[in-house]
Specification:
The complex is a heterodimer of chains A (about 500) and B (about 500). Chain A is an alpha+beta fold and about 500 residues long. In chain A, about 40% of the residues lie in helices and about 20% in strands. Chain A has helices at about 65-80, 175-195, 230-250, 295-305, 310-320, 325-335, 335-355, 355-380, 390-400, 405-420, 425-430, 440-450, 455-460, 465-480, 485-495, and strands at about 10, 15-25, 85, 90-95, 105, 115-120, 125-140, 145, 155, 165-170, 205-215, 225-230, 260-265, 270-275, 285, 295. Chain B has a single domain (about 1-498), classed as Amidase signature (AS) domain (Amidase signature (AS) enzymes). Classes of the chains: A alpha+beta (about 500), B alpha/beta (about 500).
Chain lengths: ~500, ~500
């Protein structure tokens, strides 16, 4: 459901509305750079992934890496954006030591991807639609290292020429939460599409955050642009800080300057990098070394057909076809790896138990989100590093479903699996944890428990129904949890009731 | 032994094939001529050892029956072409000491065919100039000097034209059998005309630009500078290729250009553009052009008057487009990676010092013009408008080629002028390119053929402009024109050991 209630920030002189736009830089997942064959692998020794082209040797020419084009189109399709069959690479001219050509090849007037819309989920259960203005391809610069020598700067050109997608939003966000949700959604989309690995700690995704404030209903205010923010948490800090700073300025009778700012993670504040007057004149013009990029609708259609299932579709399928709760479905699809793990687990489980997926999905989802995610969180591991294999996870659930072990025992077995990496069937076998469903054996234990607790029995029969739980607990204790709780319930009730 | 330096390329090829002499002998004679001709300042670097090594390899190729048209032919290479491990600096101070680890595609093609490199020739710095007076390595002297009224040779040095001034001086002075040139607005054709040689600029996209130090990417083309049209046809075939490392290279088969020289142009439609009859054009140029028309007519061609209405805008258009691209192409020369570095206060101090010391006045002038026309607020008025006019100029030609097969014009508005005569008047200098620039803007092939002598016995050239990728028809017409003109004059040798 769309959220229509405006969110205002209170100032000393009344309400303010914050307006946010994001420029997300996402590194294209590709083996080679945008215009040269050099590797894009992260973490190599400085200047080992550098060709004559990416070091801007005289006479070197760029040649488009087709895979990067396909990745940009896939991303555009995943975001539901218009794909431009003709686009143009331009040169953005400026001098810096880590920009070997003295210009960045980018797309200015004619980007490869045009407008689209992204629907994001908010915490209060509502959704919001945020416009995408465009996506264009560009080269990354190298890296200046100022801490390697007391008086000199070193330059590492490994990143020079790596393909980036710049995804520009419309100024449609009105809170840090919305901006965070939008960023996360884009990250989820590119990871589903396989077009960017989304690794923020390796700099694969970062954002320039544009913030302005205005009186509700007024014209857009002057914005500040905070560069290179590399986590959602930082982005939200930037928005909070900029909102406060700009409101304070305006309420004190000052004015907000159009400027570029930088974020200091240590203090959570931003500071001015350069003013509008100091802004570069990039002298964009079409790169004469590259012809306009043209492809057919068929090329786009083929890529569209081959796209994997996207998160919104997947979530709807989990809810509608498999009966997973809306909350669980949202959690599972947020990370492609989680969704993949869940779906494989469910396949495996259905195969093992011979039951229909929709009968198993809720229990499987609860286990993945509750038990598995809990364990991963404790150890700081991601699902791809899960110590519990898909096969073992499915086996554990299957043991529970076929009644071999109880839910409580399953939790114990899972702990042992985490500690030892052992197979659950083996653990159950070794530790003798098989559930007791033998009515004769359970009957005997119930009789023992009743005999030992005559006072409690009297109270129960006197109306204290809640003591039923006490008797169940005692029976389970005597069987070290192995008694099938359903059987215990069935047998216990008539005996207590007399 | 006979003087092998006086041979044409075709004669040398035939002599080598017949075993009349070896490439080593041919090369040694040229090396010796180079030593005697140092006063011309046509070479920046003489690659004697490489030349002899290549000559020996060529002799082996010929012996093994693997010779081609270029095998064993000693040639000079314009310093604009990158040559592996050999000085390649575009005659600029800023590339001091630069020796690339790669060969340009054009030179690699020549070496593949067994051509022999004598050295790197002088040129206007970054090919910016029409008199070869802007080189960091000093001006080149034209082997030709004016003849005074009393019949004696002038004591003044004459410019060889530019920017391929060193290349034409080397060939006209018989220091090399042929040379590579590059043409952005006339840099092959105008100097060829000034030195009584043939200069061919092929269709844009015919030769790879990979490894050519860029001046203006949308205009730069490599081509041969030779003694005859036949020589140009032979060398062109070796230089041309499709190259997937250059996105503007065109994938078409390279024909055997020499086969096009049938000597028969009966019925050929030759266009005479009225707009090339310019105010203030010397009478001897006008007369030579008329003579050319008569020669073509006598050979059976049909002369057709045509109009290229946007011709008068070609020069201003060129002097916007070329500097704009140059201002960006030359940004990579910043003192960071290779070539000259002059330390300064911080990064920007180093940039300023390096570029101030590294670039000559003409290069600085064009960087300034180019930066200006691309600047915010001026882009539409200059660069964008120039691009539109460029399209109109190309359309003029396309329309003309509905009626004609080739177009005949003078190559330059004057013969070679005395050193220093125009070096302080950039506009007068730029006017040298008035007849050559339109074909460059339209990307068409054009050739200058020596056709006569001026009043003071300096060579004059006529230009033929062909259809895109129809170098063959153009060469056939040029061959007929050359024979009709019967240009046999040679410069009187004033240089050498005294």
């Amino acid at each position: 459901m769309e959220q229509f209630i405006p969110k205002y920030v209170q100032g000393a002189t009344g309400d303010w509305e914050v307006v946010i736009g994001l420029e997300i830089h996402a590194q294209v997942a590709s083996e080679a750079k945008l215009f040269s064959g050099s590797s894009t692998k992260f973490g190599a020794e400085p200047n080992t992934h550098v060709s004559f082209v990416c070091s801007a040797m005289p006479g070197m020419l760029p040649v488009i890496n087709e895979e990067c084009i396909r990745q940009a189109v896939r991303t555009g399709l995943a975001m539901g954006c218009e794909i431009h069959l003709r686009s143009v690479f331009d040169r953005k001219n400026y001098f810096y030591a880590d920009l070997p050509q003295g210009y960045q090849i980018s797309q200015f007037k004619d980007p490869i991807v045009g407008e689209g819309e992204i629907v994001v989920d908010l915490e209060d259960g509502t959704t919001k639609t945020i416009g995408v203005e465009r996506l264009h391809l560009e080269q990354d610069a190298g890296k200046s290292m100022h801490d390697q020598h007391p008086t000199q700067t070193y330059v590492d050109l490994n990143r020079s020429g790596v393909a980036l997608m710049e995804i520009v939003s419309k100024p449609d966000m009105r809170s840090a939460e919305e901006a965070g949700a939008y960023f996360r959604k884009i990250r989820t989309l590119v990871r589903y599409a396989g077009t960017c690995d989304g690794n923020m700690d390796q700099g694969s995704m970062r954002a320039d955050v544009n913030v302005s404030v205005r009186r509700p209903g007024a014209e857009l205010g002057i914005r500040s642009e905070t560069k290179n923010v590399n986590s959602v948490r930082f982005m939200m800090q930037v928005i909070a800080f900029e909102t406060r700073r700009q409101i304070d300025l305006l309420e004190d009778g000052g004015e907000v300057l159009q400027e570029t700012r930088q974020f200091d993670p240590a203090s959570g504040t931003t500071s001015s990098l350069r003013s509008k007057e100091e802004a570069h004149d990039y002298r964009y013009f079409p790169d004469p070394d590259l012809l306009p990029l043209e492809f057919t609708q068929e090329f786009v259609d083929d890529l569209a057909k081959a796209l994997p299932e996207l998160p919104d579709d997947k979530r709807n399928r989990l809810i509608n076809d498999l009966g997973v709760s809306a909350y669980n479905a949202a959690v599972l699809v947020a990370e492609k790896e989680s969704a993949d793990y869940f779906e494989s687990l469910l396949d495996s489980l259905a195969h093992k138990t011979g039951k229909a997926k929709e009968e198993l999905a809720t229990q499987a989802a609860n286990w993945v989100i509750g038990d598995l995610f809990g364990a991963l969180k404790k150890t700081g591991k991601s699902i791809s590093e899960s110590p519990v294999s898909l096969k073992d996870g499915a086996e554990l659930l299957a043991l529970q479903i076929d009644g071999t072990i109880s839910g409580r025992i399953a939790k114990d077995v899972f702990e042992i699996m985490l500690d030892t990496g052992k197979n659950p069937e083996l653990i159950v076998e070794e530790k003798g944890l098989k559930q007791v469903s033998d009515t004769g054996a359970i009957d005997a234990i119930i009789d023992e428990v009743i005999a030992d607790n005559q006072d409690k029995l009297a109270q129960y029969r006197g109306g204290k129904d809640k003591l039923f739980g006490f008797f169940v607990g005692q029976v389970m204790k005597k069987t070290q949890g192995k008694a099938n709780p359903q059987v215990v319930n069935q047998l216990l009730k008539p005996k207590l009731d007399g | 032994m006979t003087d092998l330096t006086k041979l044409t390329l075709a004669e040398a090829r035939d002599g080598l094939a017949k075993g009349d002499f070896t490439s080593r002998e041919l090369t040694l004679q040229h090396l010796s001529a180079m030593e005697k001709g140092r006063e011309l300042n046509s070479f920046i670097v003489e690659t004697t050892d490489i030349a002899l090594d290549m000559a020996d390899k060529a002799d082996e190729m010929i012996k093994a029956g693997r010779g081609t048209g270029m095998t064993g032919i000693p040639i000079a290479v314009k310093d604009l072409f990158c040559t592996k491990d050999v000085h390649s600096c575009a005659a600029s101070h800023i590339l001091d000491g630069f020796k690339p680890k790669y060969d340009s595609t054009v030179t690699a093609n020549l070496w593949q065919d067994g051509a022999v490199m004598l050295g790197k020739t002088n040129m206007d710095e970054f090919a910016m100039g029409s008199s070869n007076e802007t080189s960091y390595y000093g001006p080149v002297n034209n082997p030709w000097r004016a003849t005074k009224k009393d019949g004696s040779l002038s004591e003044n040095n004459y410019v060889p034209g530019g920017s391929s001034g060193g290349s034409v001086a080397a060939v006209a002075g018989h220091l090399a059998l042929a040379a590579t040139g590059s043409d952005t607005g006339g840099s092959i054709r105008q100097p060829a005309a000034f030195a009584g040689l043939v200069g061919l600029k092929p269709t844009y996209g015919r030769c790879s630009r990979w490894g050519m130090i860029a001046f203006a990417s949308s205009l730069d083309q490599a081509g041969p500078i030779t003694k005859t049209v036949r020589d140009a046809a032979i060398m062109m075939e070796s230089m041309a290729s499709y190259d997937d490392k250059d996105s503007t290279s065109v994938n078409r088969n390279v024909p055997n250009y020499e086969h096009a020289l049938t000597g028969d142009i009966r019925g050929l439609k030759v266009g005479i553009p009225k707009e090339y009859r310019m105010d203030g054009m010397p009478e001897e140029i006008e007369k030579l052009w008329q003579q050319g028309i008569e020669w073509m007519k006598a050979a059976g061609a049909e002369i057709i008057d045509i109009s290229l209405p946007h011709t008068k805008y070609a020069l201003p258009t060129y002097y916007i487009v070329a500097p704009a691209e140059a201002s960006s192409n030359l940004a990579r020369y910043d003192g960071v990676k290779y070539g000259l570095r002059v330390e300064g206060d911080g990064l920007s101090g180093m940039y300023k010092n390096t570029r101030a010391a590294g670039f000559g006045d003409e290069v600085k002038r064009r960087i300034l013009i180019g930066t200006y026309v691309l600047s915010a607020g001026y882009y539409d008025a200059y660069y964008l408008k120039a691009q539109k006019i460029r399209t109109l100029i190309a359309q003029d030609f396309a329309k003309a080629y509905e009626k004609v097969d080739v177009i005949l014009t003078p190559t330059a508005p004057s013969p070679a002028f005395a050193m220093g005569e125009k070096s302080n008047d950039p506009i007068a200098m730029y006017l040298n390119d008035v007849f050559t620039v339109p074909a460059s803007l339209a990307g068409l092939p054009a050739i200058s053929v020596p056709a006569g002598l001026s009043a003071d016995a300096l060579p004059l050239g006529l230009q033929l402009i062909g259809r895109a990728f129809d170098e063959e028809t153009m060469l056939r017409a040029a061959d007929v024109l050359e024979h009709a003109a019967g240009f046999t004059a040679k410069p009187k040798i004033w240089w050498g050991e005294k």
